[in-house]
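Page 47, continued from p. 46.
Same chain as before, 195 aa.
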Amino acid sequence: MLDSYENLNQTQKNTFREIANKLLANTFLARDKKDNKENYYFVVSFKEIFDEFFQILGYQLKLDQSLGAIMLTSDVNGGYVKLKRDETIILLILRLLFHEHLKETTLNENIVISIQDIHEKYNYLDIKKRINKTDLVSALRLFRRFNLIETMGDITMSNTKVIIMPTILFAINTEEITEVYNSISRIVSEAGDEE
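Result:
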């Protein structure tokens, strides 16, 4: 690995370091997210070096070029983010909305929804505890940081558009959408605000 890394010029080494740290902090890169595009293609170009580097740390780099998504995974039980109950439900709702809208589009097109769509799906699922605006905004900011979504405007407004990135398929890795519905039902049936 060191030989391949040493063949990079100084600018490439700096870029490599920045992207490696970004992946360690944010787990995902989405090709179609504006601030990820250059990083995504850099990883694709130098994937072998990234693979060797992360292997030393106990991580694996998953790349799906058809989705335009990269995810950093680990075999050890570390590096996971514990989500609150409401954050988990919102993430699962985003996965449901991605699935529903994917039927109408192709993977080459972005899945665009509105904040109102999230509220409507939340209501449709008949969850007794309503999501408040502060918790929703906080969750969306978290998911934006992890490159699962991109927002187009003020996320406090119900008509604001949200792009759901294909990285959501890595975050909620299931082939059966009924598993997502079952997960939501199980979370809702559990009492309290457990993580």
